[in-house]
Amino acid sequence: MSKPLQDWELTREALDRFLDWLDADREQAGRKYEAIRRGLIALFNCRGCSAAEDLADETINRSIRQLSSIEDSYEGDPAKYIHGIARFVALEYFNRQVKRYGGPAPEDLPDPSRTGGPDEEDEREALSRCLRRCLEKLTPVYPLLPRRKPVEPRSPQVAGRAVRLFDQRSSHPDAQAE
User: Fold this and answer.
1) Phi first, then psi: what are they for 11, rounded to 5°?
2) Each residue of 14-30: pLDDT tens digit?
3) How many whole angstroms separate alpha carbon 88 and alpha carbon 93?
4) At 113, phi and psi to the nearest 5?
5) Which of 2, 6, 23, 50 could cross-link to 29 by cystine, CB 3.0-4.6 Å?
6) What is the pLDDT of residue 160?
């Protein structure tokens, strides 16, 4: 049986064993570790977690802690296993936020009863949903100008078009008066 979470401390030996599990080549294992950590930070940021780096570190620490129990039996990409742990870390984070501040948890959290880690396509879909939500919240600084057919550079229309664009921008409410 493993130690309770509060009593567990990351040791150099545990980290070395984790890196060996990621890849036998230490240089490649370091690259994988950094890629996994960056992916976790992006995942937590995308889900609206304010402490994304801390949650990524927590996820990796839990993975290292659980490594001895799954090392011999787990087959597959370690990143998928780690992302599976990240799902639970995110759920715990949102549960703490709900208890602290009230309100519902985000609707797009993955189902924790689903076995295995999210595959690459699921991750892309989650990132795509997040990006769409973020883009919907943005408001354009300048109104979108209608698209026009390309104008030949030496055409007499060029000067008139430039004047119209200048007039539109300078009459915009956000334009600064000189």
Assistant:
1) -115, 165
2) 899 999 999 999 999 99
3) 8
4) -80, -10
5) 23
6) 56
Secondary structure of residue 158 in the 3-state scheme:
helix
Q: Which residue type sits at 11?
A: T
Residue 111 is predicted with a pLDDT of 56
Domain boundaries, the chain: 5-137
- Count of C-beta atoms within a 10 Å radius of residue 38: 11
Contacts of 170 (CB under 8 A, 6+ apart): none
CA separation for the pair 26, 107 (Å, rounded): 39
Q: Is the separation of the CB atoms in 25 and 33 below 8 Å?
A: no
Do 22 and 33 contact (CB within 8 A), yes or no?
yes
Q: Which segment of 10-14, 56-60, 98-102, 142-146 scores lowest on mean pLDDT?
A: 142-146
**How far is Cα 129 from Cα 118, in angstroms, rounded to an integer?**
15
Task: Give 54: exposed, middle or buried? Use CB within 10 Å, 0-12, 13-18, 19+.
Answer: middle
The answer to whether 118 touches 80, Cβ cutoff 8 Å, is: yes
Distance (Å, whole) CA 47 – CA 94: 10
Distance (Å, whole) CA 108 – CA 91: 11
